[in-house]
Amino acid sequence: MVVPAYQEEKVIGGLVRAIRDRYPHHIVVVNDGSTDDTGKAALDAGATVLDLPCNLGIGGAVQTAFRYAREHGYEAVARIDGDGQHEVEDIGKVLEPILRGEADASIGSRFLGETRYRASIPRIFGIRHFRWLVNLFTGYRVTDPTSGFFAINRRLIEFYSDHYPSDYPEVDSYILMHRLGATAVEVPVRMHARAEGKSSITPFRAVYYMVKVTLSFLINRLRRFG
């Protein structure tokens, strides 16, 4: 289990304990240069903590975890956000297609099945834009292209350890999977509003994010990977 976390000292301990209570898996929290006690709270709750010396952003934090998994020989990794918005009980649902060998990636979608999640209008517009982009250029029929709740197998652990996008990686990862010929499925998961902390996505950053990710997605479609 991989949990990237930045300034999440109020929720990370409870999240780690909730995961440990339900799943007997190794939990790795990547403390992404937090200036609060996120790392200590995760360590006290029983996680292995990888402390980054500065804030690398979500892509760098998750890639650090993939490299840790590669070096320690793990066959599968599940990633869940450190802000407590996902249901811990859904981790098994996300992992199942990977453990059964049905796909290289299994992505939790908040828009499949019954859900109480209500996104803001700018976020809905952005998700629909990226859904169209991913479907058009990769053929993956996704409903939640910005989901940060997923699991991958050893093949993608090896690939992402060297090639994971550094900034806003969720959408870009689809074009990388497509270039690799990887298979992906979506499974329904529940998602809630943040209990603590504040999202980094403001209206201005939302527009910036859409333009930047769209350009990055199109450039990655043309890139060659060694």
- Measure the end-to-end span: 28 Å
Number of strands: 7
How confident overall, as mean pLDDT?
89
What is the H/E string?
Answer: EHEHEHEHEHEHHEH
Give the helix proportion (percent range). 40-55%
Strand composition percent: 5-15%
Major pleated sheet: 4 strands, mixed
Number of helices: 8
Strand order of the largest sheet: 4-6-5-7
Q: Overview of this structure, please?
A:
With 226 residues, this protein is of the alpha/beta class. 45% of the residues lie in helices and 13% in strands. The protein contains eight helices and seven strands. The chain has helices at residues 12-22, 38-44, 58-71, 91-99, 121-138, 154-163, 169-180, 203-222; strands at 2-5, 28-31, 48-51, 76-79, 105-109, 150-153, 184-188. A four-stranded mixed beta sheet has the order 4-6-5-7, with helices on both faces. Strand 2 (28-31), helix 2 and strand 3 form a beta-alpha-beta unit. Helix 3 packs across helix 6 (154-163) and helix 5 runs parallel beside helix 8. The mean pLDDT is 89.
Summarize the structure.
By secondary structure, the chain is of the alpha/beta class. The protein has 8 helices and 7 strands.
Characteristics:
about 230 residues; alpha/beta; four-stranded mixed sheet; globular
Spell out the blueprint of helices and strands.
Layout: E1 2-5, H1 12-22, E2 28-31, H2 38-44, E3 48-51, H3 58-71, E4 76-79, H4 91-99, E5 105-109, H5 121-138, E6 150-153, H6 154-163, H7 169-180, E7 184-188, H8 203-222
Parallel strand pairs: 1-2, 2-3, 5-7
Antiparallel strand pairs: 4-6, 5-6
